[in-house]
Amino acid sequence: MRIFYNNVFKNYFLLTITLLAEEIIFRTVTKLTIFDWTLLRTFIGINIIALICAALFSFFGRIGSNILSVIAALALSIYSVAQAGFKNFIGVFMSFGTSSQVGAVKEYIGDYLNSFHWTYWLILIPAGVLILFYILFDHRIKVLERNDAIDFSDKFDSEERKQLNDKAFAKKKRKRMINSKINAIVVAVLFGVAYYFSLTVAFMQNPLQIEPTRQLFTHPDIPDIAMSQFGPSMYLFVDVKSLLLPSQEMEESTYDKGYVKKEQVISDYTRKIDDTLWEQVANNETKANYKRLNNYFLSQEITDKNDYTGIFKDKNLIVIMMESTNTIVLDERYFPNMHKLYTEGWAWTNNYSPRNSCSTGNNEMSGMVSLFTINNSCTANNYRKNVYPEAIFNLFNNADYTTTSYHNYTEQYYYRSTIHKNMGSSHFYGVEELGIPYSNAYKEWPSDVELVEKMLEKTEDQDRFMVWMTSVTAHQPYTMSSEYGDKHLDLFKDTGYDISLKRYMSKLKEFDNAIGALLDGLEKQGKLNDTVIVLYGDHYPYGLNNKVLNSYFDYDVTKQYEVDRIPFIIYNPEIQAQQFDEYTSYLNITPTVANLFDLDYDPRLYAGYDLLSSTYPDRVVFANGSWKDKKAFYNASTGKITYERDDDTYTVDELKEINKTISEKISMSNLAIKVNYFDYLEKAKEKYRVETAKPEENTNSEEKTE
């Protein structure tokens, strides 16, 4: 026990053991890799935190430092528990960049707790043990230290000498404490050097990781990987650091030097694009970020046209982003209208809607502009003033369509009236303007049937229209009674499902009725044959326990992001029904639609692809850089790959190339959003267009004079 007489060392040692135990439990319950080099990096980081805390807390005396040590350990353990629950509920680890989602969790506390796994509470055990140690043993340590001081004093025969030596003992103790503080800071600095070394040294890096660890430390834009590499305690520090001291430093890129345009093999399908103005912009740009982005996008592939190009030319388009709608909605027994679209239209059986921070707003945005949103940011809101000339609305505006967008709720969560306008929607209709009754109580969402009816009224007199609708009825909560959660419960009374699943399916029934109203309304207006309907879901139904979902599906939703499997359908009565097995997500909607309608667009400006292109890579990429295709599943958080068959695998070089491509798409999408690149590009092109036209204008003027 005498080693604990030094209060700085005692608190450092106890905090280190406590935080390390919390870390191991956290990794276990969240299924992160435990025994690899990341644990060593985490251990070094914990030592830094514990040393600094112990040195600072020592200024508050023995009792004060003990209390502060308990508070620190308890706060970090509660933070870790919250992170585990948030990851399970929303699908990503939270960041200060997505703090608004904490409010969403608070509002849906019933569903949050319903999805919460009891094992997450185990993370609190080490902090509890620390508290018990201070209660049961710290006083004994203090008594032993006092007794040693008395024994030291009793060695002297006179009372006067005893007092003098008591003072000497106290002075020696103070000096020892000062030295301990200095030593703690010195050792913390040495651990800091070791930590920096761990961010860069080759043997501590995963060669398949999509973003370098040092870059993650500077820009923790992908919380899942950052959490895996740093652990919750150090991730908290990194997250706070990036919030208070945002760094502009970027890893070097080959695109800093120039661009190499991919050669096109000329054929009848060649998509010809004049790059004269863009190349002028790129060659004269001096700002590093714009230069890199110009070079990157110019270097991408211009996908050819194909047999599907223009198959829907001049038809109307209705895109519906379905709130919280997974493949349960395809069940013919309960949802005949969705089943009709799925079986009579084009359906992608391996479509996913990857979860990320603020999934509804961000996945709506990705569907419109085909870019990866910033993983630790409510991107749609935070960058709502950005302008996107290449967004789906603007593509149809350029083709002389009337474009509008609709949502049957308020702007409490997302600023759609601003976001949609800057993407080209000529008018956004919210719930108030549509005159749809709604309640501020989050459990009572409006009916999607009314949304469809209002939209049909607005478009009835329009000749060629493009509409984007975002539904809302199927939104959580499912654990409590609500109007549409209870409205169709009788349909599912004999299923034996959990009441939360029945309420969810009741809400889906209301949405299915809305699809029926849409088909009937278009038929009555004589527009059904001339209208294409595209449907995809924003995310799986948050708040439904995985065990409850597994009671419906014949596969385990917890494995390989299967919970994110969502319908994607393109329907028109005149097309022949087809099912496609390509792996895809909402990222590919805009380029695919643009090709099907033969719109004037540049495929290089999108992170997604035309699904029907002969060069489509047939791979879905999740928000954290994980991916899945017919051969394998790569988990970006763990850096591990799982194959469908042992005899059909990728080489290491092939994996590195795949991850490099994905990493570039994510980082370039994020950078383009951060610097409002596409607005810049359009204005820069216009500048050179005007300058190029001036001599011609002067020449024409002279000719007229002559």
What does this structure look like?
This protein has 706 residues and is α/β, with parallel strands linked by helices. It has three domains: 2-204, no CATH class; 252-282 and 680-706, no CATH class; 307-623, Alkaline Phosphatase, subunit A, CATH 3.40.720. 51% of the residues lie in helices and 8% in strands. The protein has 25 helices and twelve strands. The strands form two sheets. It has an eight-stranded mixed sheet with strand order 4-3-5-1-6-7-2-8, with helices on both faces. Strands 9-10-11-12 form a four-stranded antiparallel sheet, with no helix packed on it. Helix 1 (7-29) packs antiparallel against helix 2 (37-57), helix 2 packs parallel to helix 10 (223-244) and helix 7 (138-154) packs across helix 8 (159-200). It is globular and about 95 Å long. The termini are far apart.
Main sheet overview: 8 strands, mixed
Rg computed from alpha carbons, rounded to a whole number of angstroms: 30 Å
Number of helices: 25
Number of domains: 3
Strand content: 5-15%
Q: What is the CATH level 1 assignment of the largest domain?
A: Alpha Beta
Number of strands: 12
Helices and strands, with pairings:
Elements: H1 7-29, H2 37-57, H3 61-90, H4 100-107, H5 109-115, H6 125-136, H7 138-154, H8 159-200, H9 213-218, H10 223-244, H11 276-284, H12 288-298, E1 316-322, H13 336-344, E2 346-352, H14 359-369, H15 379-382, H16 392-398, E3 402-407, H17 416-422, E4 428-429, H18 431-434, H19 448-459, E5 465-470, H20 483-487, H21 499-524, E6 531-537, H22 546-550, E7 568-571, E8 578-585, H23 589-596, E9 620-621, E10 627-628, E11 632-635, E12 640-643, H24 652-674, H25 677-705
Parallel strand pairs: 1-5, 1-6, 2-8, 3-4, 3-5
Antiparallel strand pairs: 2-7, 6-7, 9-10, 10-11, 11-12
Helix pairs in contact: 1-2, 1-3, 1-6, 1-10, 2-3, 2-8, 2-10, 3-6, 7-8, 11-12, 11-25, 19-21
